[in-house]
Design a protein that fits this description.
Structural class: alpha/beta
Strand content: 15-25%
Strand order of the largest sheet: 14-15-16-13-12-17-18
Number of domains: 2
Shape: globular
Length: about 475
């Protein structure tokens, strides 16, 4: 039922394990601060059991023909659609984001699984021209092995779907650690796969202290690949752990997306799209547009228009009708955003809208617009991950490209212009794994999702996401 929060548990080889004899923590609704449930932490024995299951499950699942694997994953996508209302309500309670967003995310997650169900059949190899009569040379694609997947809280359904869809479609088993803030959402995706017929040993779900779990899983020779979405600092730490076992890694790390707005655009249209993109999930989106560089001819109009929209944005409980933006995920995030804004003010920035927490229960922060933010402000070089838009001016194209590219992030970048020559140039010049020109829509199931520089390496979704879970084998037969 949509109004019932599910009981929380671990899933080890398909078996639910509750809190008896295990450390537990509270899971809170960030809009109300009420306790939703108690989440058990995996013990060392639980993790060893999950590893043993992953080893068994890999041997079993890789032997299943790709067509049958695809049928099972497709059934899971259908189950997500059937359960969409209850799953979306659960995700809203855990993450705080509006119900309209979690319904879209549920549908997106089903689409991702369905796409991988189909693409897994096309992990083709090739036959090479023989150089010696009577010999055969082939290149084969095989699953990399058991995958450890760490998913964050900001897209509690979409991130597990990306990681599980790719790994399972390739024939890998998986141990998933969703975020402890949003556990029931990740469990819902996993349960759909198990209910669809996935062998129980092929998927386990664990929770606990992230560093302890990552050290234990990545210290095991059973795990062959790490998939991580999260901060740059944690990503670097996990890469060091993975290096000891030469494990393959896919790292989708932080961003600080620039948006270049030229003077020839339809200002009102771009403002409407910018506000919707910036305040989606309270700005807690890795590809969220953050640094707006606006041509000086329209800068003040754009800044004031952005502020007007921010002040009018409806903030509240994600389950309430009409809510456009929910709370931040926890008190720590709210305090971090406040510190960014206070520092920017101290450095001479203009606060055109917001800038303060809401004086009510829940981890709410006002939609905020800052203008004329100097480089020395922390928010210019550190990802804010919150509902704050920076609106600075520029006058010269070469200079603004340098501004957009000068930080170590390279996940997403955006540009708006009606000049085709400039648009073509920006597609080449902006240093990011994903570039949106006259659009903020840069993610669909069949497109690669990933960054460059300190925003990570490798891609999820698309054929690239499947390839990341496959190894290449050359076989020469005489």
């Amino acid at each position: 039922m949509a109004d019932v929060y599910p009981e929380l548990h671990l899933l080890i080889a398909g078996a639910p394990l509750g809190g008896d004899g295990r450390t537990q923590e509270d899971v809170l609704n960030p809009a109300t601060e009420e306790v939703l449930g108690r989440l058990p932490h995996a013990t060392t024995q639980d993790l060893d059991d999950a590893l043993a299951a992953a080893e068994r499950g890999f041997a079993q699942w890789r032997a299943v023909p790709p067509q049958e694997r695809g049928r099972i994953i497709k059934r899971a996508a259908d189950l997500l659609r059937e359960r969409a209302d209850a799953i979306a309500h659960t995700a809203t309670r855990e993450s705080g984001k509006p119900l309209t967003e979690t319904r879209i995310e549920t549908a997106m997650s089903a689409d991702i699984l369905e796409w991988y169900a189909e693409e897994g059949r096309r992990a083709y190899g090739r036959v090479l021209m023989t150089r010696v009569p009577g010999t055969r040379m082939t290149v084969r694609k095989e699953p990399v092995g058991p995958v450890a997947a760490f998913a964050p809280w900001n897209f509690p359904l979409g991130n597990p779907a990306r990681k599980l869809g790719a790994a399972l479609a390739a024939g890998c088993s998986c141990i998933l650690k969703p975020a402890e803030e949003t556990p029931a959402s990740g469990l819902a995706v996993a349960q759909a796969l198990l209910d669809a017929g996935l062998p129980k040993d092929a998927l386990s779900v664990v929770f606990g202290v992230p560093d302890a779990i990552s050290r234990h899983l990545l210290g095991s020779p059973i795990i062959r690949k790490l998939s991580f979405t999260g901060s740059v600092a944690v990503g670097k730490h996990l890469m060091k752990l993975a290096a000891d076992g030469m494990k393959r890694t896919t790292m989708e790390l932080g961003g600080h997306a620039p948006v270049l707005v030229f003077g020839d655009v339809d200002v009102e249209k771009v403002l409407n799209e910018s506000a919707a993109a910036k305040f989606r999930n309270a700005g807690q989106v890795c590809v969220s547009p953050t640094r707006f560089y606006v041509h000086e001819s329209i800068h003040e109009r754009f800044a004031q228009g952005f502020a007007e929209r921010a002040r009018a944005w409806k903030v509240g409980d994600g389950l309430a009708d009409g809510t456009q933006m929910g709370p931040l995920i926890h008190a720590r995030r709210r305090e971090a955003i406040g510190a960014f804004v206070r520092d920017a003010e101290a450095q001479g920035s203009r606060v055109l809208a917001g800038g303060r927490p809401l004086n009510q229960r829940g981890y709410f922060f006002q939609p905020t617009v800052l203008a004329d933010v100097p480089d020395k402000a922390r928010i210019m070089s550190e990802e804010p991950f919150g509902p704050v838009a920076i609106v600075n001016s520029f006058s010269e194209t070469d200079a603004v490209i340098r501004e957009a590219n000068k930080f170590p992030f390279g996940l997403a970048a955006f540009a708006f212009t009606q000049n085709l020559a400039i648009a073509n140039r920006l597609g080449d010049a902006l240093e990011a794994g994903m570039v949106g020109v006259n659009t903020f829509r840069i993610s669909v199931p069949d497109s690669p999702f990933g960054g460059i520089k300190e925003s990570g390496h490798g891609s999820e979704e698309g054929i690239e996401g499947l390839e990341a879970c496959l190894v290449t084998k050359f076989v020469s037969e005489a």
